[in-house]
């Protein structure tokens, strides 16, 4: 089980990302547009730098929804390999059976 503080910090980052998504996208579009004047692009990059760092999508860590584990994460199932195995052995994941040969 991951520390509660790490899980909560990640949730805050996700909320900030959602809050600033439109503003960030508009500023990035201005910076990348080659047709706008260089002064305007520079001002947009400065405004982008003033936004909170945790509002960037890159800073969100994929974590297991069951245990909060950051490693061994399956995106499709939103859980770690360990939680997947435990729930699979208990028969709580439909269609998943333990292999044997």
TrEMBL record:
Matches recorded under Gene3D superfamilies: 1.10.287.1480
MF terms in GO: rRNA binding; structural constituent of ribosome
Keywords attached to this entry: Ribonucleoprotein, Ribosomal protein, RNA-binding, rRNA-binding
PROSITE patterns given in the database record: RIBOSOMAL_S14
Keyword Protein transport set for record: no
GO biological process, one term: translation
InterPro entries: Ribosomal_uS14 (IPR001209), Ribosomal_uS14_bac/plastid (IPR023036), Ribosomal_uS14_CS (IPR018271)
GO cellular component labels: cytoplasm; small ribosomal subunit
Residue stretches in coiled coil: none
Pfam families per record: Ribosomal_S14 (PF00253)
Family the entry assigns: Belongs to the universal ribosomal protein uS14 family.
Stated role: Binds 16S rRNA, required for the assembly of 30S particles and may also be responsible for determining the conformation of the 16S rRNA at the A site.
Subunit note: Part of the 30S ribosomal subunit. Contacts proteins S3 and S10.
Cross-referenced HAMAP family: Ribosomal_uS14_1 (MF_00537)
Name of the molecule in the record: Small ribosomal subunit protein uS14
Species assigned in the record: Devosia chinhatensis
């Amino acid at each position: 089980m991951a520390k509660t503080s790490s899980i909560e910090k990640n949730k805050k980052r996700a909320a900030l990302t959602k809050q600033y998504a439109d503003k960030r996208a508009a500023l990035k579009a201005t910076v990348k547009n080659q047709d706008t004047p260089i002064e305007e692009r520079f001002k947009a990059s400065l405004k982008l730098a003033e936004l909170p760092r945790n509002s960037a999508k890159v800073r969100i860590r994929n974590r297991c929804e069951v245990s909060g584990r950051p490693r061994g994460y399956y995106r499709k199932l939103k859980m770690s390999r360990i939680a997947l195995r435990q729930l699979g052995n208990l028969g709580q994941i439909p269609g998943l059976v333990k292999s044997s040969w």
